Protein 1
Amino acid sequence: MPNNPKSLAILEHNRRFIPGGVVSINRHIAPELVFVRGMGSRLFDADGNSYIDYHGAFAPHFLGHNDPYVTEAVVRVLRDGASLYGSGTTTLEGRLAELMCQAVPWIESVQLLNTGSEATYQALRLARAVTGRDHIVVMQGGYNGWHNDVACNLMTPLAALGPRVSPGEYPFLPISSGIPEAHRTLVHPVNFNDLDSVAHVCERYPVAGLITEPVLQNIGVVHPKPGYLDGLRKLADKHGFVLIFDEVKTGFRHAPGGYASIAGVTPDVAVYGKALANGYPMAAIAGKRDLMNWFAHPEASKRVLLAGTYNAHPVPTAAAIATVERLLENGGEVYRRVEGLGQRIEAGLRAELDRAGVRSVIARQGSAFCVYFMDHAPVDWHDLASHHDAALDEKLRRELIERGIYWFPLQTKQCSISAAHSEADIDRTVAAFGESLKTV
Ligand SMILES: Cc1ncc(COP(=O)(O)O)c(C=O)c1O
């Protein structure tokens, strides 16, 4: 446990004014550390400890904390007197939307919001509007935000989930109280990588939309099987539902065109956030013009309401423009660099795991990786929960924190490399991993 009396004192103080002492209870985790600074690949806590960061605040910091180019863009718009006007369009929002359309070749039109949850909310509302249907399909083990339709079936304990079902659906198992019963009957969680279950649901309910992360990244890194995303595309065409890729974590992080461009599969709508603005609150929903035009439908009764006082606030918009500019620089050189770091850490961790004789697989997509203590790469949450040694995973993460390496200390939480990480950071991490393995 790192020395943390100052962190504990701050938490104690905040408990008097904030429920649990933390805004967002998923940030409350042991060891209780209060971070006071983040620069590049490093985090610094209130007690003067520093860490090489692989949590990256749940993944937005693809360029690293406080990237100087992004910071400069933010300071510049504020110095120039840009404000939030709430009337009319702005050149900044036009510039960002245009850049996004350049980066993601299949999209033609963009709307900007503040958070991924808002974006997934709007994507589902759009799907319901255009299809005139209410039911949606979500992935067991996927995360698409905190709102009523999708706050379910994430890391559900097997005891609650019951035996594997296929083809078929799992019950809606909320991850929040306060979700109306009526919502639960409209949402159908299925196994990732299971096309038969999607077909099964479509044959029974009028499905408006299916939302999925193209690679599940809230339970580590669970890849689609070859043909799975294409199979979803075909089912969407056959059954007439809107295919929504939740690229909040994958978008701009694995390629400028997101995972859709890597897979070569085009959804109807995609949502972005996180890496789009390198840590600033910016999210987007994007797609083909005919679908996106429902947000400005000439018939008021058909129009999908998308409003928000802070939408396209100049600070996150400037941050997003600067981020996308950096990502597109030199033909996407940053992706090649981070892929090199990804290969280096994967090889290093693999060697340490083999040396220790630990049954494990490393799943990785570019900058995102996860070590699973099981003998095969998981295909879905049920598979993962049935085979992964979660206790060993969490023990190891705490050992790493002891050694100045911050892997979020909750089983299967994905690790993120940023462009600010160095080869020396990676090598130090691998050495600490080897030592931690010996201890656990
Ligand atoms: C894939 C995915 N979708 C949506 C969200 C929700 O985004 P936000 O936390 O910005 O509301 C998240 C957040 O972790 C996410 O990982």
Note: The CA atoms of residues 116 and 273 lie 5 Å apart.
Protein 2
Amino acid sequence: MSKFIIRLEQPEDFVAITRVNELAFKSVPHSEQTEHFIVLALRNAGALSVSLVAERSNQVVGHVAFSPVQFSDGSIGWYGLGPVAVIPELQHQGIGKALINSGLASLRSVGASGCVVLGDPN
Ligand SMILES: CC(C)(COP(=O)(O)OP(=O)(O)OC[C@H]1O[C@@H](n2cnc3c(N)ncnc32)[C@H](O)[C@@H]1OP(=O)(O)O)[C@@H](O)C(=O)NCCC(=O)NCCS
């Protein structure tokens, strides 16, 4: 497994996060390649509750976003996972899993009720 660290996003990561999302989703059939705009919109709306990057050799190579979601029954404290992205050449090495597990740990630490994910069931 390649060496990487998971950490909170910093303003100087914003360009790299856009690039990671563009690269990761470039060849994904169910994607409209708009994920980097979703991240920007969430950040601009102040809705990027947890935004983590994976860094390897001083480069951002992965990213995950968590944002609040609302339920029609009024349940509170829920979050949505996504998008999550790892650059193609480093996929299937555990980086995505580490990003998601770190994000879920952050949500637990703030007392979140739970986290949902939408998308391809596979
Ligand atoms: C999906 C993605 C973030 C996973 O990151 P990764 O670093 O490649 O994944 P990991 O190596 O941590 O694998 C974690 C688990 O997910 C599985 N997995 C990884 N990519 C998968 C995919 N595209 N489809 C199904 N399962 C996948 C792995 O088999 C592994 O399962 P295991 O723990 O049972 O072995 C990455 O492949 C990616 O960026 N894909 C393109 C963008 C995308 O489709 N994002 C998800 C929708 S928001």
Note: The CA atoms of residues 65 and 82 lie 5 Å apart.
